[in-house]
Amino acid sequence: MERLLERTAPASNYSLILTPALMEAVQNEKGQISIHTENIFPIIKKFLYSDHEIFLRELVSNAVDASQKLQKLASYGEFGQEIGELKITISVDPEAKTITIRDRGIGMTADEVKKYINQIAFSGATEFIEKYKDKNTGEETNIIGHFGLGFYSAFMVAENVEIITKSYREGAQAVRWVCDGSTEYELTEAEKEDRGSEIILHIAPDSEEFLDKYRLQGILEKYGRFLPIPVEFDGKIINEATPIWTKSPNDLTDEDYKTFYRELYPMSAEPLFWIHLNVDYPFNLTGVLYFPKLDNDKFQMKREKIQLYSRQVFITDEVKDVVPDFLMMLHGVIDSPDIPLNVSRSFLQADGNVKKINGYITRKVADKLNELFQADRAGFEAKFDDIGLFVKYGILSDDKFYEKAKDFALVKNTGGKYFTLNEYREHVQANQTDKNEQVVVLYTTDRNQQDAYIESAMRRSYDVLLLDTVIDAHFINTLESKLEKTTFKRVDADTLDKLIDTGIASESVLSDDERTKLKESFEQMLNDKSLMVSVESLPTDELPVSITMPEFMRRMKDMSALSGEMNMFGNMPGGYNVVINANHALAQKVLSLDGDAQQALAKQLYDLALLAQNRLTGPSLTAFVKRTVAGL
């Protein structure tokens, strides 16, 4: 194939300068392939490609390049004949144990075969582009090959490879090249009516799995689903030559984008929205990224949903360095010839372009989100529960994204109202500023479990945010470092008087001795030194007993749970405080009792506090119900 060595070193293009020598009759010859080591083929077979199925991607890509070169020559007026159908055909013959790839591209002369197949030292695509760079159409880089040893990947699965090729040039003689995987080859004249190339692979015994047509079809659909030249296998065209990312957004409807998404991800719900990428300077990048509906509990979902292509050839779905980490949960396609790959095109290689592309994608996503927010805030709010994870993760992982996102990132209170970060700070500043002039943002991670605490806060006209996603512990830390004089405290982290300490203490109806006796009675009943018991002067309408955990301890445990690490905080038991309301009538009643009666009431009040947080379960809950029924 005309780009047969397109990956050979590093790509195959052919000299397009017509000379008399090229028109001479082909002399039958045998010789040796010009390489620096005789061990090249074992290296290719065993080490170059981690997955042998890639041979088909490489050879079909070569055929695509050969066809595109012919189109290019015709557009330059250097091919005046009828191009006809530029279809690539793949066929398999299980009995003969062969796979054949045919194209109708530019073909090769005998001299070109010697140059580009026998000498692993040329870059065909680079040479082609260099020759025609003065045409300056902006499309010169639409030649796939520049990666290395592509043609020779055939020897990973074949014990013998034939090339039958005929140049597009008028009067050219067809030639046949044969090699058995050693450094020796044979070149002879051949009979071939039409231009183009046929690659015939005689499959080795250890690779006969590739003679199964369903196996080949799966490989073709994986790597060649969007190749720019029609590819036929088993009588059917298997590719879409003009996928939506190659088109102008102005020519596409919403339904076009949704249909393409369903083709890529048939089992997924409809996407929320999408971003069409298209840039040609300082790098080439096209693609479409979709924001999927994402459940809160699926934050650790598989992140290999974005597919990377190079000139419509599938490369990998591992795009870790190209796409910012916080956007790895997006779906879609990225296509760029400027992302550097290793010689086998299996792994990305870090360089300046990758960083630029990463930054570009971050900006595009931020700009799109801001555009949606500014154009239709109500619609943006309706989607924010689904996209909030992306935005929050971006804020805590990328400072540049935060600078843009701070204007459209939303928080929601327990009443269901959305605010930007600045709007919310202004909303609570007057009523929730402590004695140190810190604005205290109260939040809940579970409105049902913490309902008693939320209700208590609302009685004091405090507002409570709903922060119940799996990354909110990290998100809160980031906001505290970004927002001036602002701190976040979970509504059940302490008593309200301590959460928002204005410096005004409530008076206690109990004496110091009574407070001490009350504390000791609860400590005796609990008999658990991991629980810290305190007696506080709280309003009479607060619960007689509350259970809290300090904000720092709770946040560290939450972050440990998210990361999956069992660090010192994740392993720590409890860490709970038991707060007794000295001003509640039932607390005073505990003091009026003694012995078993006192302990029974203290136990009942403690269990009520557990029940208020949905933490009373199993035998403890059963015993509580029995005691309550017996006392009625």
List low-pLDDT spans: 1-24, 121-126, 136-148, 566-572
- End-to-end separation: 91 Å
Give the helix/strand class.
alpha+beta
Mean pLDDT: 84
Q: How would you sum up the global shape? A: elongated
Helix content: 25-40%
Tell how many strands the DSSP assignment holds. Answer: 22
Q: What's the Cα radius of gyration?
A: 35 Å
What can be said about the biggest beta sheet?
9 strands, mixed
Keywords:
alpha+beta; 9-stranded mixed sheet; 5-stranded mixed sheet; 22 strands; 36% helix; elongated; disordered N terminus
Task: Tell me what you see in this structure.
- The chain is an alpha+beta fold and 632 residues long.
- 36% of the residues lie in helices and 18% in strands.
- It has a nine-stranded mixed beta sheet, covered by helices on one side. Strands 10-11-14-12-13 form a five-stranded mixed beta sheet, sandwiched between helices.
- The longest helix is centred in the middle third of the chain and has 24 residues, at 352-375.
- The radius of gyration is 35 Å and the shape is elongated.
- The relative contact order is 0.07.
Give a quick rundown of the structure.
The chain is an alpha+beta fold and about 625 residues long.
List the helices and strands and how they pair.
Elements: H1 20-23, E1 29-32, H2 40-48, H3 54-75, E2 88-93, E3 98-103, H4 110-116, H5 124-132, E4 158-166, E5 175-179, E6 184-189, E7 196-203, H6 213-223, E8 231-233, E9 236-237, H7 254-264, E10 273-279, E11 285-291, E12 306-310, E13 313-316, E14 331-335, H8 352-375, H9 377-397, H10 399-405, E15 410-412, E16 418-420, H11 421-429, E17 439-444, H12 451-459, E18 464-466, H13 472-482, E19 486-490, H14 496-499, H15 512-526, E20 532-536, E21 545-548, H16 551-563, H17 568-571, E22 577-581, H18 585-592, H19 595-612, H20 618-631
Parallel strand pairs: 2-8, 12-14, 17-18, 17-19, 20-22
Antiparallel strand pairs: 1-6, 2-3, 3-7, 4-5, 4-7, 5-6, 8-9, 10-11, 11-14, 12-13, 15-16, 21-22
